[in-house]
Amino acid sequence: MAESARRPASHLPPRSLGRVADVTRTFVGAWPVYDVSPRGAEPAARVLYVHGGAFVHELERPHWSLIRTLVTRARARVVVPAYILAPRGTADRTVPVAADLLSGLIAGGGAGAAVLLGDCAGAGLALAAAQRLRERTGAQPSRIVLISPWLDVSMSHPDQAAIEAADPVLARPGLAEAGRLYAGNLPADDPRVSPLHGSFEGLAPLTVFTGTRDVLSTDSRELLARARAAGVAVDWHEEQGLPHLYPLLPVPEGRSARERIVELIRATTADGP
Strands 114-119 and 76-81: what pairing? Predict the structure, then answer.
């Protein structure tokens, strides 16, 4: 993180994306926000995509590859915030802005209904934003899609130690430190920081992807139980032996997951704004 502070990584989209999409950038406060739409065609759906990276990493090529798939396969307009990273970007500042972006996407109209999508830390931020918007106005997107979500930054689930031994991607100490920085002055169990501790009443239907070799799979399983107990429909996908963020990987299960996401977004085109 110290190295990132000295030499910040770029969140710019790859130039190749411009061959298939119209890409513009605006600012919401200090946040650069990219708007990516199908080139030469009207969008058929709207997506707010919140990227992962443990709150300390910028948008990277796998994120932009998924965005490209959403634009080309689902004909979606994808709104992509490059939110301020921790430790400057803390939950008390970040969640309200994400909720504003979600509110604007829902209220802004256009083809199809709005879908909220996030991966890893971005999935946690997305869920916290949906909870915040529900508290404000009751509004919700048509669906919330969470890929390998990180929903409790404390990393305190008793099953995580055994899963971590087989996890090829993540380790608890680094995640706990990144979570501490993102929490700022808030406690780790504040729903803005760890939305697993928030209310699930009145949320949009959820789609969740997780793998059994992901130390964060405990968050997904807890989410499944709590959301269903609150009466929220959950479209559940747990893949045996697969790691964190497998839906972004070039493997058969990843391609199937991406196809499912495309199907869900396409299904909103019949729902209206």
Answer: unpaired
Say what the pLDDT of residue 270 is. Answer: 55
Q: Indicate the DSSP class of residue 205.
A: P
Q: What distance in Å separates the CA atoms of residue 103 and residue 6, rounded to the nearest whole number?
A: 34
Q: What is the pLDDT of residues 243-264, one digit of tens each?
A: 999 999 999 999 999 999 999 9
Residue range(s) defining the domain that contains residue 161: 2-270
Q: Output the pTM of the full model.
A: 0.96
In this prediction, residue 269 carries a pLDDT of 72
What stretches of 39-125 adopt beta strand conformation (E)? 45-50, 76-81, 114-119
Domain count, the chain: 1
CA–CA–CA angle 201, 203, 208 (5° rounding): 115
CATH number of the domain within which 151 lies: 3.40.50.1820
